[in-house]
Design goal:
The complex is a heterodimer. Chain A is mainly α. Chain A has 24 helices and 5 strands. In chain A, the strands form 2 sheets. A 3-stranded antiparallel sheet of chain A has the order 3-5-4. The longest helix of chain A has 29 residues. In chain B, strand 2 and strand 3 form a beta hairpin. Classes of the chains: A mainly alpha, B mainly alpha.
């Protein structure tokens, strides 16, 4: 009986995977036989071979999901990973979108297996394909995004993560996905040393609407403080759209970092070092020590940058004194590094031991710059239009109008009523 | 002022003894020669003639100033002189409490003739008790009679009594109470002036400002003397609250009719000094020229303190070395002034900064050695000062530390505009994208919440 039902299911799959309606019919059938499939998980492996993933995607998916949800099968099957990868590569996108939760759960077990075997790098390409197939549009965030970024982080393939991060995300199904996605995104950008983007990602995490504090936001805030210091030298205040939960509670959980920020503001190197020493274990346990060290070196940079505003030429000895470095040699190394990174414009005259600071040579006259400005303008106009349409859409929304209608001031009879009565 | 003495009386750098800037003959603040009986500070430096200084004032402020000088000056001779004068002045009055305080400070340094006179103090106290009772009884009688004028006089007398006995809080209260019984503008002005006097003693300058405006609001035209008094009081209030520009304006508007009519608070020399210094520290060149140098009225005051006149003229004519020298010479005396002492440093720094900024304005490049000479400092110190001013964006320039030259720098407007534009674009994009995501999140939460509703 049990075997029959599985066979029957397989037969259905093979038969009904032709057109849209058939697939829909198949879908309902499959949903009914879910429990049966699960109970027979161990045997499903054999049946999978009878199906073609590209054609019988939906059925394959159901079987695969039931199969992979069974831990025993996962352990024993050496080809588990391979079969999933094959499936992901060859499956058809429309059929997957009929049962997205199943697909996501298959990918999750894939990710778990990959992490368990400690070969995260193997999971990167398949998951990316999976994301692209699952997404309706490139602006949509799926649960897989955060898993993908996690694998990239573990495998230290930051550039791979960038390709997904570069997509602008506007549609979010599950708020929870966003937190992890932005948090990992921030970490990837930190790894690539693009602090501005990291700041944006982390900023999104802490300003996202939340009713209760979650651990991701706390961790993100710690990194946010450090990145803010590296970028701007100070931590900005919470913007007014931050949720009140975040505003009230985040600071109390991140005291050592706030102390660090205050220490940084006073500008002396010795104090900052002292502050770091006192909180060393906490930084280490949060695995933020690397970032903290970068904060330290950014203090030098900031001091040197301030000098560029006041001096045209300055001796290396004076730079060392002003930036609290120990020897002119160290000052030279720092200045050299900053010139290479493009953070300042200067030339070092080794004979005199002098550094000459220059103005930013950018004259904004090149074709490249014009193109940059032009494309920015277009991009911003598109964005602005999007915003406008969202606003229009919202103003026509019945729920909104009802709410507005209830709260509007009462006018006289002959005054123009801004809300049509049917919404009241 | 960098490098020079900071608050002690003794001048460390050698001044030419007894500088005679302008006509110092009629200025009682600066002694032409050291008087016998006062020890001159070794090596020069100026001495304030305490007796002449004290002669400028009357009433409680005289005592307060003398005691302040005695406390602050480092010179034994001056201190004793000040104490002696204070003692004599207190004895003329009726404040036994102040007497006891002062005697405690003096100890027995003034010799047997100035030992504490308990008898006198007790007699004063007894007299005070009697008088107080009498006044209070009279006041009660007047109150029952309900004659406004007598009640007002009663309160005034009581307040005067308290004032004479050093109970300033009670004096203040009683003066304020006369307000309800004032019938003419004259009464109001009288009341305001009294309150102002007590408030200045109590250092409550909020009240001073309030009552000055009250007095000025009376419909009747004020006579010039009162007007000047009010201006001075207002200026003093602003000075104490560190609003130097407003203080300068008030002092500059004081009419010369003030003369010696307000010696219980301020002397005309003080008006000149306070007004001149505040103006220098806070006015720009046009205002300085119009309101100070060309101000005929204020000239009368400046005649009394020629140093201030000279230093203002020097500043305007860019003779900075001379100007700063005058300032340095004035400094020890100013530190002994009860109203100005804690503002001296700030004002001096301001004036110095203004001088430096003004020096650099006309030039494209300035040799730091020449400039250091003009400001009587060394190149390293000057560089530090310039760095602070440049960081503060008061000077648009860059320092060439190698050749020790200051180059003027004019920001390139075009580049700056491009930079700002691109920056705005980046920020706009970032904010809008974040906003769209957030809007989306909120929408989903709303939808889930709505869906859960039955």
């Amino acid at each position: 009986m049990a075997m029959e039902s599985v066979e029957a299911v397989v037969a259905h799959i093979q038969g009904l995977s032709g057109s849209q309606e058939e697939v829909a019919h198949l879908h309902s059938l499959l949903k009914q036989s879910e429990d049966a499939l699960r109970s027979q998980a161990a045997r499903l492996g054999a049946f999978l071979h009878q199906l073609d993933p590209s054609v019988h995607t939906l059925g394959y998916l159901f079987l695969l999901e039931a199969y992979s949800s069974d831990p025993v099968c996962r352990e024993q099957d050496g080809d588990f990973l391979l079969s999933i990868v094959e499936f992901i590569n060859s499956c058809s996108a429309e059929q997957i979108r009929l049962a997205p939760e199943k697909f996501i759960s298959v990918c999750k077990s894939f990710k778990d297996k990959v992490m368990q075997l400690q070969v995260p790098i193997q999971g990167i390409v398949p998951l990316r394909t999976a994301i692209r197939k699952l997404q309706v549009s490139s602006e949509q965030l799926t649960t897989l995004h955060s898993d993908y970024l996690l694998l990239c982080l573990l495998a230290k393939c930051y550039k791979a993560g960038l390709s997904i991060l570069d997509d602008d995300i506007f549609e979010v199904d599950q708020p929870r996905d966003l937190f992890l996605y932005c948090y990992y995104g921030g970490m990837i950008n930190i790894g690539l040393k693009s602090y501005r983007k990291a700041w944006e990602c982390l900023h999104n995490v802490i300003t996202a609407p939340m009713t209760t504090l979650n651990a991701i936001a706390v961790e993100a805030y710690k990194k946010y403080i450090l990145v803010s210091i590296i970028l701007n030298g100070q931590v900005p205040l919470f913007p007014k759209y931050t949720s009140s939960t975040a505003q009230r509670n985040l600071k109390s959980h991140t005291q050592p970092y706030i102390d660090l920020a205050n220490c940084y503001a006073t500008g002396t190197f010795a104090e900052l070092e002292g502050c770091i020493q006192t909180n060393l274990e906490k930084f280490q346990s949060d695995s933020n020590l690397g970032l903290v060290k970068q904060v330290l070196s950014s203090l030098y940079k900031r001091n040197i940058q301030r000098l560029t505003q006041t001096y045209l030429t300055l001796s290396l000895q004076d730079i060392a004194n002003a930036a609290q470095l120990k020897t002119p040699r160290e000052a030279e190394m720092h200045v050299l590094q900053m010139i290479q990174d493009g953070e300042i414009f200067a030339t070092i005259n080794q004979k005199d031991g002098m550094v000459s600071f220059h103005e930013d040579p950018e004259q904004y006259k090149t074709c490249g710059m014009i193109e940059h400005i032009d494309s920015s303008i277009h991009r911003l106009m598109a964005l602005s239009q999007k915003l406008g349409s969202l606003d229009e859409h919202m103003s026509c929304d019945p729920a909104y109008l009802t709410r507005i209608g209830k709260e509007r001031p009462r006018f006289d009879f002959d005054e123009f009523d801004s809300v049509p009565h049917k919404f009241l | 002022m960098e490098g020079d003495d900071e608050g002690t009386f003794a001048a460390a750098t050698g001044y030419e003894a007894m500088y005679a800037n302008g006509d110092a003959g009629d200025d009682p603040r600066l002694p032409p020669t050291p008087r016998s009986g006062k020890a001159a500070v070794g090596g020069g430096g100026d001495l304030m003639d305490v007796e002449a200084y004290a002669a400028l004032y009357t009433g409680r402020t005289k005592v307060a100033r003398l005691l302040f000088i005695a406390e602050r000056c480092g010179n034994e001779g001056m201190q004793l002189e000040a104490f002696r004068l204070a003692h004599d002045e207190i004895k003329k009055g009726e404040d036994s409490h102040l007497y006891r305080e002062a005697m405690a400070k003096i100890g027995d340094r003034l010799g047997p003739r100035y030992a504490i006179d308990q008898v006198w103090a007790d007699a004063v106290d007894r007299r005070a008790e009697v008088r107080k009772e009498k006044l209070e009884n009279e006041l009660n009688i007047y109150k029952t009679n309900l004659i406004k004028e007598s009640i007002r006089m009663g309160f005034n007398d009581l307040a005067d009594f308290f004032y004479a006995h050093g109970q300033l809080g009670d004096a203040f209260k009683n003066f304020v109470r006369t307000r309800d019984y004032c019938t003419t503008s004259k009464h109001i002005i009288h009341m305001c002036l009294n309150v102002i006097l007590v408030s200045i003693e109590l250092s409550q300058f909020m009240h001073v400002s309030n009552y000055v405006s009250k007095a000025e609001q009376t419909p009747e035209q004020l006579d010039p003397v009162t007007h000047s008094k009010l201006r001075c009081a207002a200026g003093l209030a602003h000075l104490e609250t560190k609003k130097y520009k407003l203080a300068a304006r008030k002092f500059l508007e004081t009419g010369h009719e003030l003369g010696n009519n307000y010696t219980e608070v301020i002397a005309p020399q003080d008006v000149a000094i306070y007004g001149g210094l505040c103006a220098l520290a806070s006015f720009d060149r046009t205002e300085l020229k119009n309101k100070v140098i060309d101000n005929i009225n204020f000239r009368n005051f400046l005649e009394l303190v020629p140093e201030v006149r000279e230093l203002i003229n020097d500043f305007y004519a860019s003779r900075y070395a001379s100007c700063l020298e005058y300032l340095e010479n004035l400094k020890p005396n100013l530190l002994l002034d009860i109203h100005l002492h804690d503002h001296v440093e700030t004002l001096y720094t301001e004036i110095r900064h203004k001088a430096i900024i003004q020096y650099t304005i006309p030039f494209i490049s300035v040799d730091l050695h020449t400039m250091a000479g003009a400001f009587k400092t060394n190149v390293a110190g000057l560089e530090k000062e310039l760095e602070a001013l440049i960081t503060d964006n008061q000077i648009q320039a860059r320092i060439d530390s190698h050749n020790k030259i200051l180059y003027a720098r004019h920001a390139d407007q075009r580049n700056a505009t491009f930079q700002r534009v691109l920056q705005t674009g980046v920020e706009f994009e970032r904010d809008v994208r974040a906003m769209l995501v957030r809007a989306n999140l909120i929408k989903h939460e709303c939808i889930t919440r709505a869906a859960r509703k039955p």
